[in-house]
Amino acid sequence: QVQLVESGGGLVQAGGSLRLSCVASGRTFSGYAMGWFRQAPGKEREFLAAINWSGSDTYYADSVKGRFTISRDNAKDTVYLQMNGLKPEDMAIYYCATNKYAGGRYYLLRSNEYEYWGQGTQVSVSS
To answer: HEC string of the chain?
Structure first.
């Protein structure tokens, strides 16, 4: 059984930074691409960033490009999301997820290609 556990959320002032972590267990972490998503109250789940199995390819939503950075450490079975320049509109529950595939832009940008999800971590941004 694959388990994903996010951490690192919290309350930060606008302009501040947070680094989210997601530790995976239950299967070979390095064999799969990973992604980060978020969902704000009353809104649909939003794709934020994705990274292929090796970390050589990354993709970002326009809303976070230049502010957020996804990375992974396969030795630690962990994927990260460094978030800088946080804005009040970034407030949401943030989720990590494992993709069905190791890479490929077509698959990494589609939420229905992600098969396991964490429980989420809350990010709050005060203005």
So the answer is: CCEEEEECCEEEECCCCEEEEEEEECCCHHHCCEEEEEECCCCCCEEEEEECCCCCCEEECCCCCCCEEEEEECCCCEEEEEECCCCHHHCEEEEEEEECCCCCHHHHCCHHHEEEECCCEEEEEEC
Taking residue 62's Cβ as centre, other Cβ atoms within 10 Å add up to 6
Six-digit token string for 60 = 């970002």
Express each pLDDT in 61-118 by its tens digit.
999 999 999 999 999 999 999 999 999 999 999 999 999 999 999 999 999 999 999 9
Reported for 39-45, long-range contacts at CB under 8 A and 24+ positions apart, including other chains, are 39/92, 39/93, 39/95, 39/120, 40/91, 40/92, 40/93, 43/92, 45/95, 45/111
Distance from C-alpha of 32 to C-alpha of 103, rounded to nearest angstrom:
7
Amino acid found at 8: G
